[in-house]
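This week, look over our next protein:
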Amino acid sequence: MKFISIMFISIIFHFNSAHADIVFLDLNNNPKEKKAALEQASLQGEKIVIYPKDNSLYDQKKAEEVLKQVVPDTLIISGHNAGGNISGNRNETLKISDLSTFLSKNPNVQNNIQVLMLNGCNTGSQYVVQKYKSIMPNLKFIAGYDGTSPLEKWVQGRHYIKDVIRLKQQIIDSKSGDELKSI
């Protein structure tokens, strides 16, 4: 079973970032994933905002408000992949076209996102990666799954979230494929 696919995207320009903030959009309503992200962000000294926080339904307009307020450099989206659109267990959907429209109207958010983690099956496919790369021009890497992602009850998914948060700066700072493989 293929679990992890990290796509490294080279960026030609120099980008200075201050403190890294994370926004976690949870369409899966997965408390274990949220807990893993909160724990690792805390260990890294990073601020994380999870939307929705509780058992509330995901709402795209509210998610956009969160993104505007936080202006994250890391965006984590958890849900079921359908051609780049991410859906939840309760019929919520984050459409990539809506995200693209929002980002084009909010270039400060669009240009600040350097790391994208997509938690869902086939989110590391070339098709999905290209879609997200086209709407977030300053991405330095995308983390996703090439094939099926772990079920909620499996610990591998939570470990993956923690690893991406813990290792993202090392991944960004990698100068070569060999250096990236050694992480």
